[in-house]
């Protein structure tokens, strides 16, 4: 997905600017693509927080 995004951005930029279709909307088109890409991203699963307090180790008496 990381390699796809720059390729898609380049394609969108080319379509908007080189086809003479409102070249002033390039930033808006890229922003829209960016938000769509961000919404499709899968959130990373968070790791469990480790208890950093000293653990009680039961020893022999």
UniProtKB/TrEMBL annotation:
GO annotation terms (biological process): translation
Q: What GO terms fall under cellular component here?
A: ribosome
Enumerate the GO terms in the molecular function aspect: structural constituent of ribosome
Q: Where are the transmembrane segments?
A: none
Q: What is this protein called?
A: Ribosomal protein L28e
Species in which this protein is naturally found: Gossypium tomentosum
The upper taxonomy is:
Eukaryota, Viridiplantae, Streptophyta, Embryophyta, Tracheophyta
């Amino acid at each position: 997905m990381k390699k796809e995004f720059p390729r898609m951005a380049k394609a969108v930029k080319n379509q908007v600017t080189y086809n003479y279709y409102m070249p002033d909307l390039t930033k808006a088109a890229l922003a829209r693509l960016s938000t769509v890409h961000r919404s499709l991203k899968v959130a990373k699963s968070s790791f469990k927080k480790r208890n950093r307090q000293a653990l009680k180790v039961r020893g022999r008496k």
